[in-house]
């Protein structure tokens, strides 16, 4: 396609897939898009293994890596100290998470103690941890690196320039977009509130044209539209408003290759667009998740106010890891509690097909939308 994203990333179709699953990365890239592997939950050693596997299976097609370096976070400019972070978490948070699980027949006495077991996310979101991941990534033939929750640090932008790798940044407001352009980011991932994971409060339909207009005095940086986009028609609509392609995450969660457990896949396939919640209860910053008794408990009046990042993940992730493990074993209470990040587009995700078939459907749907729009112009 005649898109700046295709030209920059050397791909056929301007569809970029954010995923934590290496199989999805490979399938999307081989189908003409660009898979991007989310690395924030991995150690450098695991990331090396994942990228080596991708290199061995992707047939030289382009792919990227995503990290998360927040501009604002507890302990951001300090040396990482997991024990210090543990000491900042009040006992009521440990008790609350244990109570939620025990109310669903999951005995959890160990969760009444906060330990360093959930601190991997905290380590990887600090500059040192993120740089260790990117040092690994740049040893592989990546085409793109992406950052969420703020302007990428100067050293990350320089790594991109030095290695001829494009740098993308996720954002949710027009002012943030201007800041990213001024910093020298190559691609803007403009994410509406409909998105899964971290998101702002402005809808995709409003945000894309707003950002496109706002950045023009500073530079016409290409936009990847994100937020609730799970079809080619939505992608086409976003591109009429100023985007040069789409960045999608949720749509890959119900694919055959997806890493999430069948229990959660089934929930997503059955869910409507209203069965998600934008909450601070998982990471300390607003992120959109599938509604479950776990998310409902944290939104109740009895819940403590979520802690700032990275403290809240140290509360939530160990509990949810236990939930997921028990759900895989068939525990009814755990199956009910199980949740995952997903956008409002979940209401259109009604089947489980391969990731390559999803890309094909995007292409066909995009062409259908283009032809429909073209018909309006004919006499």
Features:
three-stranded antiparallel sheet, alpha/beta, 44% helix, eight-stranded parallel beta barrel, single chain, TIM Barrel, 379 residues
CATH topology of the largest domain: TIM Barrel
Tell me the radius of gyration. Answer: 20 Å
Mean pLDDT: 94
CATH class of the largest domain: Alpha Beta
Number of domains: 2
Give the neighbour order of strands across the main sheet: 1-2-3-4-5-6-8-9
User: What's the helical proportion of residues?
Assistant: 40-55%
| Total count of strands | 11
Give a quick account of the main beta sheet: strands, pairing sense, barrel closure: 8 strands, parallel, barrel
Q: What structural class do helix, strand and pairing data support?
A: alpha/beta
Q: SSE order in H/E notation?
A: HEHEHEHHHHEHEHEEHEHEHEEHHHH
By CATH's scheme, which homologous superfamily of the largest domain applies?
Answer: Aldolase class I
Q: What oligomerization state is this entry in?
A: single chain
- Percent of residues in beta strands? 5-15%
Low-confidence stretches: none
CATH architecture of the largest domain: Alpha-Beta Barrel
């Amino acid at each position: 396609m005649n898109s700046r994203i295709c030209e920059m990333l050397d791909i056929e179709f301007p569809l970029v897939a954010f995923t934590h699953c290496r199989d999805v990365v490979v399938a999307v890239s081989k189908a003409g898009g660009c898979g991007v592997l989310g690395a924030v939950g991995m150690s450098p050693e695991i990331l090396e293994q994942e990228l080596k596997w991708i290199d061995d299976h992707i047939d030289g097609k382009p792919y990227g890596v995503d990290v998360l370096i927040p501009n604002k976070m507890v302990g951001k400019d300090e040396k990482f100290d997991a024990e210090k972070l543990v000491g900042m978490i009040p006992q009521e948070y440990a008790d609350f998470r244990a109570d939620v699980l025990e109310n669903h027949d999951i005995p959890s006495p160990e969760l009444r103690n906060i330990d360093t077991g959930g601190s991997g996310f905290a380590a990887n979101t600090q500059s040192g941890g993120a740089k260790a991941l990117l040092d690994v990534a740049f040893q592989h033939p990546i085409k793109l690196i992406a950052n969420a929750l703020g302007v990428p640090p100067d050293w990350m932008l320089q790594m991109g320039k030095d290695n001829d790798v494009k740098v993308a940044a996720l954002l949710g407001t027009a002012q943030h977009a201007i800041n990213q352009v001024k910093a020298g980011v190559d691609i803007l991932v403009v994410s509406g509130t409909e998105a899964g994971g971290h998101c702002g409060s402005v809808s995709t339909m409003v945000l894309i044209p707003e950002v496109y207009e706002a950045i023009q005095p500073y530079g016409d940086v290409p936009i990847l539209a994100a937020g609730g986009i799970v079809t080619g028609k939505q992608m086409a609509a976003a591109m009429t408003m100023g985007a040069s392609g789409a960045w999608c995450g949720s749509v890959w969660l119900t694919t055959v290759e997806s890493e999430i457990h069948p229990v959660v896949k089934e929930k997503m396939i059955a869910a409507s667009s209203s069965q998600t919640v934008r909450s601070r209860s998982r990471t300390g910053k607003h992120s959109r998740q599938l509604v479950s008794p776990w998310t409902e408990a944290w939104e109740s009046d009895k819940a403590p106010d979520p802690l700032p990042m990275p403290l809240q993940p140290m509360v939530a992730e160990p509990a949810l890891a236990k939930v997921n493990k028990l759900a895989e074993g068939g525990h009814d209470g755990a199956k009910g509690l199980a949740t995952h990040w997903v956008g409002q587009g979940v209401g259109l995700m009604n089947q489980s097909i391969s990731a390559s078939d999803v890309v094909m459907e995007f292409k066909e749907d995009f062409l259908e939308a283009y032809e429909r729009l073209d018909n309006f112009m004919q006499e």
